[in-house]
Amino acid sequence: MIRTNNLIAFQGEPGAYSHQACHDARPDMEALPCRTFEDVIEAVRAGEADLAMLPVENSTYGRVADIHHLLPESGLHIIDEAFVRVHISLLAQPGVTLDEVTEAMSHTVLLGQCRGFLRDHGIRSITGADTAGSAKIVAEQGQRHIAALAAPLAGEIYGLNRLADQIEDRQNNTTRFLIMSREPDYARRPNRAGEAGMLTSFVFRVRNIPAALYKAMGGFATNGVNMTKLESYMVDGVFTATQFYADIEGHPEDENVRLALDELSYFTSMLNVLGVYPADPLRAEQLRQAR
């Protein structure tokens, strides 16, 4: 049996938003930085870490490239989801004041999320490899006129002062992460807010028959199962081979979910459940706000 070591793996430098997700969702665990998403998955498969923290989509920029290709082949199972608000801080050397900063470094995506603040303060953008890496460079170079845009956690790690917080143009910018482990956990349990909402994620390929996708989706409608996500992507670069990723509300043991999945299996050539897990409390909060 692989021993547990209380480590959760993430992709990026210490202080990255994936690290922030680990810090927020699993504060009792030590975060293990990895170079690539593949390295994160392998760390868990090899027993070097107990859990993997993987970003799958952002409310502003859509799904994270390559993740949906990696999940089905990972051999890991989704046991939880975590929504992390993308709060951006302007980080600089200790003692530096805001009026001294003329340049800000970060990943190009983050720079694009702070255009208003940078314009108002006359700060020029510098593209860095990533957010936490930019904070590390600012800390190492020691130049007073250059700051970094990154998560507040990066400032703590690299000894930088937070000159301004929550400077993002969109205050509702949120990244969804999936927490994965070597073993599935189908046990019913409430989420962190004490609510019992469950989600089931799976991938499937439809059979090569007319209207197969339409027929496959019919079971969810007739059984009253809410599908919160359905995405398609090519398999092995072949235009005729399409795989679908889906999230639905409910647990496979629920009667309506069981019936819907049974009907789906009739019209598919492959069906693989990736995980059954409680919904993040922020999901219900956003739904209430949308109504």
UniProtKB/TrEMBL annotation:
Q: In which pathway does it act?
A: Amino-acid biosynthesis; L-phenylalanine biosynthesis; phenylpyruvate from prephenate: step 1/1
User: So what does this thing catalyse?
Assistant: prephenate + H(+) = 3-phenylpyruvate + CO2 + H2O
Q: Name one GO biological process term.
A: L-phenylalanine biosynthetic process
Which UniProt keyword terms apply here?
Amino-acid biosynthesis, Aromatic amino acid biosynthesis, Lyase, Phenylalanine biosynthesis
**One protein family per Pfam:** PDT
Question: Would the keyword Lyase be found if you checked this record's keyword annotation?
Answer: yes
Keyword presence, Lyase = yes
**In what residue span(s) does the ACT domain sit?**
201-278
EC numbers on record: 4.2.1.51
Per the UniProt record, the site (Essential for prephenate dehydratase activity) maps to: 175
**Can you supply one Gene Ontology CC term for this chain's record?**
cytoplasm
**Domain annotation Prephenate dehydratase: ranges:** 7-182
Top enzyme class, one word, equals lyase
Q: Which InterPro entries match?
A: ACT-like_dom_sf, ACT_dom, Chor_mutase/pphenate_deHydtase, Preph_deHydtase, Preph_deHydtase_CS
What's the superkingdom here?
Answer: Bacteria
**SUPFAM superfamilies, A to Z:** ACT-like (SSF55021), Periplasmic binding protein-like II (SSF53850)
A GO molecular function assigned to this protein is: prephenate dehydratase activity
Gene3D superfamilies per record: 3.30.70.260, Periplasmic binding protein-like II
Tell me the NCBIfam families matching this sequence. PRK11899.1
Name of the protein: prephenate dehydratase
